[in-house]
Specification:
The chain is of the alpha+beta class. The chain is built from 16 helices and 12 strands. Helix content is 43%, strand content 18%. It has a 6-stranded mixed β-sheet with strand order 1-2-6-3-5-4, with helices on both faces. A 6-stranded mixed β-sheet has the order 9-10-8-11-7-12, sandwiched between helices.
Amino acid sequence: MSLSSASRSATPVRGVFPLGLLLSAVSALMFLQSFATMAATAQARVSEFKLDNGMQVIVVPDTRAPVVTHMVWYKVGAADEPHGSSGIAHFLEHLMFKSTEKIAIGEFSKIVARLGGQDNAFTSNDCTAYFQRIAKDRLPQVMEMEADRMINLKLTDKEVLTERDVILEERRSRIENSPAAILDEQMSASLYQNHPYHIPVIGWMHEMAKLSQADALAFYKKYYAPNNAILVVAGDVTAEGVKALAEATYGKIKSNPAVGAPRVRPSEPEARAPRRVDLRDQRAGRTTLSRHYIAPSYTTAAPGEAEALDLLLKIMGGGTTGRLYKKLVVADAVASSAGGYYSGSNMDSGKIGLSAVIADDSTIEKTEAAMDAVIAELKATPVSAEELERAKKAYIAEYIYESDNQSTLARRYGWGVVAGSTIAKIDAWPQEIAKVTAEQIRAAAVKYFELKNSVTGTLAPLPLEAAATPATQKQ
């Protein structure tokens, strides 16, 4: 379906809204609301229930093919790690693929592959998730295997030491060998002064090197329990069928009274001054400028705020039609690329990110001034009806297309619920996006583009012969 825009931007005079634009805006809003309702209705069959041991279960029917996506989400991530043991959540994710009494070392993924499926796992600030995509008739075996390693993981000291070398090498390849990744890590460490989001998910190298078998087992025994987990099954299944399988596998595991209470983490103090991180590295290519702002997440934002931030950043930083690109690249020619994003999926807070690659004949100062000019304009004047309509259509269309992907559906509900949302709120997202006004977007820009709540980072190449400290931090 082609989503063409029929409205035009116009400036109201003394509170009088042009009639043609008003009719066009009303028509666009009705279309968006209808489109959003279709999106929400498509997921109306989603159901949820709890097992007697406290495990939450979400079932997302998708009967187009005899395939299922099976995910277990643990309500523990890098932000829940003991102080001084950064990286333990991610380390345990690796170790979960070792052995149990029933499964030999390294056999878990091989068994899934022999069953014709794929599996993997990931760790974030707020959760750790394990997933398999498998034929529907193999689901009982996969659920039995996942339930087995929830409670019966075996770890020898040799396995732990070997896998510790693996995660250390992963950090070297992903972070230490990437100046851009180092800058991003340093910016996060400066953006969050007290909250554990300032610690990288993979961990700090010096703490990762000390992680032990005892650390891994203590973390495992505390957090890996059915009452601290969410099971999501999407695919050719019914709620009744999944419930029977879940009770026969996960339902046999006892709950852990040590977990299950709401997670409470240290909060951020009031920011007093903007921060800056300047990284010079001989491996860097082009000079880049980045800026991050703390913002609320979908879980912590006031009604409508997160949706307004999503649309604000789509209008501001969404590709070549975004205001940043038009100003910095096309109009002022101070950057070769520019963009931005809003990350609102965390449990405690979100982040606004802006970035630009400096043009060869430009400077960091000129590019930063142009970026600030875009922000100032968004604070001063509501976005146009045409921009707002295009951003809404783009987001709702993405939602519809993503709903066609079974794995994406499983992640949508798992990630939302583990971060503190509900099925109803997740399904209502397109309708909430459709209701956002231009004034809400302007208000979000005024409130959250606050320089003292930000960190600005620059990355520039360093001549080979130069000797300097890799990064300097200013406050």
